[in-house]
Write a structure and sequence with these properties.
By secondary structure, the protein is α/β, with parallel strands linked by helices. The protein contains 14 helices and 15 strands. It binds pyridoxal-5'-phosphate. It comes from Dokdonella fugitiva.
Length: about 425
């Protein structure tokens, strides 16, 4: 690209970044650096979010309280450990559009998915199927298949997979709602993602719930790529449960404590569940009686006392989301991803195909990109980007995912990505 064209684009990007009302939030994060000391262009928040600056101090506080107070820190710590999981409740509820007693932070994502299926996948002879996307995340496949087998059914008939029916590998509303309409009477559970990890497609959660409930199916969502990305309204959506992880858009660190939503309508239901003492009614938990008396709401699904050192980063991270506001973040995100999308189409359209839907309502911040030409070209571009300090990720067989997240990414990050793609294309033409 000619130098003056590049300068013009850079000036434009910097100008837009300067006008971003959320720009200051970037300073709350630690951006990894290249060997030469420059900041990386990090577009991988869809996979592992960056570390908030405040996380280290929050962790050290807990280590200090453990040192100074030991067992007493359960009651006298700066953030007492006994009620600790409650400190994230309100922020978590606000983040996903839920009532406070509908959410809980616990375990990890796949564990929560299993615990939810214990309660909400109750197959019988005629209604025993689970509906998922054919290209669902492997862990979700493993979880639903193993649940089907655990109940003595055969995935060959009890696992119904929706095939992509759009050119980029995405699913039309008609394909999803059609599958529910067609198979509804034998579907026990509809288990779909909120934002598809591979294509970046966002599903119409409310429409899915309406269609599924009309057929008598329960509905759960895996929101790994939706939490902290979309402005979710889980309570109004009406799904029966949802689960998500906290290390992607929620910036809470590798393997962070995950989230779980159980709709209010199930808060006091006598559902089968795998129980543990931390799910027992708080008022009587320490009577240490053998009978289980579930805490109403999502808290009743907890098993163990929570890992404080893993919850501290979540507490920090959710306080950032509270201050920024998910509505404002989503507004910035739509504009940022639209900018990224337009830049790619205009300046890298000869090289890259965007497979993520173009409509804002059908995607979050991530764009899934396919390199035109042989698969080796995709790997070669990916390696080139990495060598330039541009961090995106690669998903087999041929997808590059790039996610400008609204908390710490800028227009200039999107532009650097596109300029590096141009540079790569120029070297290949020689
Ligand atoms: C990231 C992700 C997972 C990972 O599961 P863990 O239990 O957190 O290791 C599972 N499912 C989906 C859809 C994901 O995006």
């Amino acid at each position: 690209m000619a130098d003056h064209a590049t300068s013009l684009l850079e000036a434009q990007a910097l100008e837009l970044d300067a006008r971003d009302p959320l720009a200051a939030f970037r300073d709350e994060f630690l951006v990894p650096r290249n060997d030469d000391g420059s900041e990386q262009t990090y577009l991988c928040g869809n996979s592992l979010g960056l570390q908030p600056r405040a996380t280290r101090a929050a962790l050290l506080d807990e280590l200090d309280d453990w040192h100074r107070l030991a067992v007493e820190a359960h009651f006298r710590g700066r953030h007492p450990w006994m009620p600790y999981h409650g400190f994230v409740r309100d922020d978590l509820a606000a983040l996903v559009g839920a009532l406070p007693h509908e959410v809980v932070a616990m375990n990890s994502l796949t564990v929560n998915l299993h615990l939810m299926m214990v309660s909400f996948y109750r197959p019988d002879a005629t209604r025993n199927a689970i509906l998922i996307e054919r290209n669902a995340f492997p862990s979700d496949h493993h979880a639903v298949e193993s649940q089907i087998r655990f109940h003595g059914h055969d995935p060959a008939s009890a696992l119904i997979e929706i095939d992509p029916d759009e050119p980029g590998g995405t699913l039309s509303d008609a394909a999803i709602l059609g599958a529910i309409e067609q198979h509804g009477s034998r579907i026990a559970l509809v288990m779909l993602s909120g934002v598809q990890y591979l294509t970046g497609q966002a599903f119409d959660l409310a429409a899915i719930v309406r269609a599924a409930h009309a057929k008598g199916c329960l509905v759960g969502f895996d929101l790994a790529h939706a939490a902290g990305n979309l402005a979710l309204q889980l309570h109004d959506t009406g799904c029966d449960f949802a689960v998500w992880c906290s290390y992607k858009y929620l910036n809470s660190g590798p393997g962070a404590v995950a989230g779980c939503f159980v709709h209010e309508r199930h808060a006091r239901a006598a559902l089968p569940r795998f129980a543990g003492w931390w799910g027992h009614d708080q008022a009587t938990r320490f009577r240490m009686a053998p009978e289980f008396d579930a805490t109403p709401g999502a808290d009743g699904w907890q098993l163990s006392n929570p890992p404080i050192l893993a919850l501290a980063p979540l507490r920090v991270s959710l306080s950032i989301f509270r201050r920024a506001g998910m509505g404002a973040l989503r507004a910035k995100s739509e504009a940022l991803t639209a900018y990224f999308d337009a830049l790619i189409r205009e300046h890298a359209g000869d090289v890259l195909e965007i497979t993520t839907p173009r409509e804002p309502s059908r995607r979050g911040c991530q764009l899934s990109l396919r390199v035109k030409g042989p698969r080796e070209a995709g790997r070669s571009l990916f390696d080139h980007l990495h060598a330039r300090g541009i961090v995106v990720d690669w998903r087999e067989p041929d997808v590059i995912r790039a996610a400008p997240t609204p908390l710490y990414n800028r227009r200039i990050d999107c532009l650097r990505f596109v300029l590096a793609v141009r540079e790569w294309a120029a070297t290949r033409k020689r």
